[in-house]
Design goal:
9 helices, alpha/beta, binds nicotinamide-adenine-dinucleotide, seven-stranded parallel sheet
């Protein structure tokens, strides 16, 4: 399979490239590294791409010519500006630019050649929930980030109606080696290792379907290889929704030392709970998240320890 991965210098995108190459696929890895607010993370992700023997093709999906991007069997569109907290205030323009305008241009560029397109969306489009969210649920986006993903999904539906074979994957809180430095587990593990407190937003009672990056990559590749009706939407999330305090305790137990935290106000739009209903993804892709939280955290901790040694 010839695959284009956008957002390849990012956390999930770089893992996806590694897995595609390992499975023998031909990969064009695309990113605009200056759009990633974490240059140190970009350097680590780029090093992983280099180890996999894949050069990074620099291309800003908002400003550059995308004529060549559809020349593939599948375009896996992971590029974007993630994160609820950073999408408020001055972050909103960047969020709309990189999640909506970029997606609109990418879908337009794919309209004629019609490669299969996989769009990375987010559980945040669901809003609050007290039961597992299923793909047919109404959307209730509560932040500029969530709204930008809902709008990207709408663009995908529109493209699907015009015959583009596009599939939407709603990722739920992804973690594992090379997790973005703004994300909770990354901050907690670093705090436990170096003793400087990590911010704990809200009361720590938030619950999330934390999903290991290897499982997310597996689901994404299955979606790329499976002929699905255009416009199909699938949850990619672990069926267990775990409390942040519980996760903090597990991190402390795995490291043998508690992560120091400092309380911060809850971020607006940061919902109390996400919870993945995995039924449709199991049915259509034969996928459910396999990695339990302790195993996944152990994998992420090993990576933090390794980079601390370098
Ligand atoms: N990490 C999660 O828990 C999570 C959860 C739900 C959805 N997602 C979605 O998955 C995707 C990947 O997330 P991630 O955590 O790997 O993020 P990331 O920030 O590590 O990677 C995103 C990459 O996209 C690139 N990018 C941004 N704007 C671009 C543009 N205009 N042109 C080209 N490249 C551009 C950035 O430079 C960055 O390297 C995102 O779309 C995100 O919204 C992530």
């Amino acid at each position: 399979m010839r695959a284009v991965v956008t957002g390849a210098a990012g956390f999930i995108g770089s893992h996806l490239v590694e897995a595609l190459v390992a499975a023998g696929h031909e990969v064009l890895a695309v990113d605009a590294p200056e759009r990633n607010p974490a240059p140190a993370a970009v350097a680590e992700n780029r090093a992983a791409l280099a180890r996999a023997g894949v050069p990074l093709t620099e291309c800003d999906l908002v400003t550059d010519d995308l004529a060549g991007i559809a020349d593939a069997d599948v375009v896996l569109h992971l590029a974007g500006r993630p994160g609820v907290r950073g999408s408020w205030g001055t972050g909103e323009a960047d969020t709309l630019r990189d999640n909506v305008t970029a997606t609109e241009r990418l879908l337009t560029a794919c309209a004629a050649a019609r490669p299969r397109v996989i769009l990375a969306s987010s559980s945040s489009v669901y809003g609050e929930t007290s039961r597992p969210s299923v793909e047919g649920d109404g959307l209730d986006p509560r932040s500029p980030y969530a709204r930008s993903k809902a709008e990207a999904e709408r663009l995908a539906r529109e493209a699907a109606a015009h015959g583009l074979p596009v599939v939407v994957l709603r990722y739920f809180s992804v973690y594992g080696p090379r997790q973005r430095p703004d994300m909770a587990f990354h901050r907690f593990i670093e705090a436990a290792l170096n003793g400087s407190p990590a911010p704990l937003y809200g009361d720590g009672g938030q619950r999330r379907s934390f999903t290991f990056v290897g499982d997310v990559v597996d689901a994404t590749i299955r979606a790329a290889r499976t002929p699905l009706p255009p416009g199909t939407v699938l949850n990619v999330g672990h069926p267990v929704s775990t409390g942040l305090h519980d996760a903090l305790e597990r991190i402390g137990a795995l490291l043998g030392t508690a992560a120091p935290t400092v309380p911060k106000d809850a971020a607006p739009g940061d919902v109390a709970r996400t919870w993945a209903g995995p039924g449709r993804t199991a049915e259509l892709l034969g996928w459910t998240a396999r990695t339990g939280l302790d195993d996944g955290l152990a994998g992420q901790i090993a990576w933090h320890r390794e980079r601390a040694r370098v």
